[in-house]
Each structure stands twice: as structure tokens, then as C-alpha cells.
Amino acid sequence: MSNNVLVIRSASTQQLSYNLDAIKTKFMNCKLILLTHAHNFQGNKYFKEFNRISLFESREAFNKKDLPKELIKEKFQAVVILCSNLTGKGYGNILDMVSILNFEKLYFLNKLSEYIEIKDLSGNRLKDNLIKIFAIFCTFIPAFIFLFFLPLFLFVTLLNKFKE
Fold first, then answer.
1. Are the C-beta atoms of 98 and 81 separated by less than 8 Å?
2. Into which CATH architecture does domain 4-119 fall?
3. Is the distance from CB of 82 to CB of 8 less than 8 angstroms?
4. Chunked in runs of 10, what are the mean pLDDT values of the chain (164 residues)?
5. What is the DSSP pairing of strand 102-109 with strand 115-117?
6. pLDDT given at position 103
7. Domain boundaries defined on the chain
8. DSSP annotation of 39
9. Phi and psi angles of residue 26, each rounded to the nearest 5 degrees, phi first
10. Residues β-bridged to residue 32
């Protein structure tokens, strides 16, 4: 694998400044690549620690379809996702986006500069898919009961009225 490390700036530029020492310490002999939204390029171009800045051209949230193509082709020793909380919760769109990248390790870097290694992306997707399936199931069961039994109930009620 290569010694490239992708840092996804999904938190403020101030937090990137704060986390920079932790990034340089952990990946001291690596080529650092920063992924940031294009509209934030001006605020990030002064970070000389990064060998390259890759621009996410969409103004939308990070997603697979707008990920720069050159990143999809590259191999990374690690991908680091900056997160503005302690746990990394709420960054599902970014986890989904990085699932198409080729990397050895995946980390959240929280606001205290602590690394949280994500060992299994499929667990997050599995949980999300199970919740979706459960929601669909909970929607269709009442709909089925309503659509099947309401006409039956009306038919039986009308039949009883005609018998009287």
C-alpha cells in the first residue's frame, strides 16, 4: 500500500489547525492529502503540511457521486475524518462516501485530537439497512391489514344488513 493519507475536512478550518499536530505526529513520513469543499479552498490553501489539496466541487454534503475521481483511483495508508464531536456520530454520509476508496485504515479524529479507528464499515451499513427494512415492514403490515380486512369487514357488514 502507499504512504498516502487522506484527511477529510468535515469540521471547521480552526479544528483542522488544532488537529494538525496529531495528524503530523501519527503520519510523519506520509504524503498528506486534504479533501475539502471547493468553496473552502481559500481558507485551507495556507496549510503547507499537505502535499496536495483535492477539491470536492459540490456545495452539497460529502457523497459518493461527487467524490473527485482521482481519489477513487488512489491507494491510501489511512483515511482520517475530522469530526467536531467526541464520538464521530452523525458522519454517516462520509462513511458511505469513503466506502468506495481503497485504504488500509480508517479513523475519526475528534475535537480532542483523539483517534477512533473504524474497523468495520459494513456494521454501520448493516445497522442502517436493518433499520430501513424494519421501517418498511412496520409500514406495510398495517397497510396490508387495512387494505385486506377493511373490504372484508365492509362486505360482512353489508351481508349482515341484507340478511336482516
1. yes
2. 3-Layer(aba) Sandwich (3.40)
3. yes
4. 87 90 94 89 83 87 88 94 82 86 93 90 62 78 79 81 76
5. antiparallel
6. 93
7. 4-119, 121-164
8. G
9. -70, -35
10. 5
Q: Which residue has the cell 353489508?
A: 158
Residue of 17, 114, 25, 111 whose CA lies nearest to 34: 17
Q: What is the DSSP string of 51-111?
A: SEEEEE--SSS--STTS-HHHHH-EEEEEEEE-SSSS-TT-HHHHHHHTTSEEEEEEEE-T
Residue 53 has φ and ψ, to the nearest 5°, of -115, 120
DSSP code, position 146: H
List, in sequence order, every residue forming a beta bridge with 78; answer none if it has no partner. Answer: 5, 105
- CA distances (Å), origin 138, targets 1, 5, 131: 45, 43, 10
What is the amino acid identity at position 47?
Answer: F
Angstrom distance (rounded) from CA 70 to CA 81: 18
What does pTM read for this prediction?
Answer: 0.72
Instruction: Answer whether 109's CB lies under 8 Å from 14's CB.
Output: no
How confident is the model at residue 135, as a pLDDT?
79
**Measured between alpha carbons, how far apart are the two ends of the chain, in Å?**
83
- State the DSSP H helix or E strand holding residue 158, giving kind and residue range, or none if neither: helix 121-163
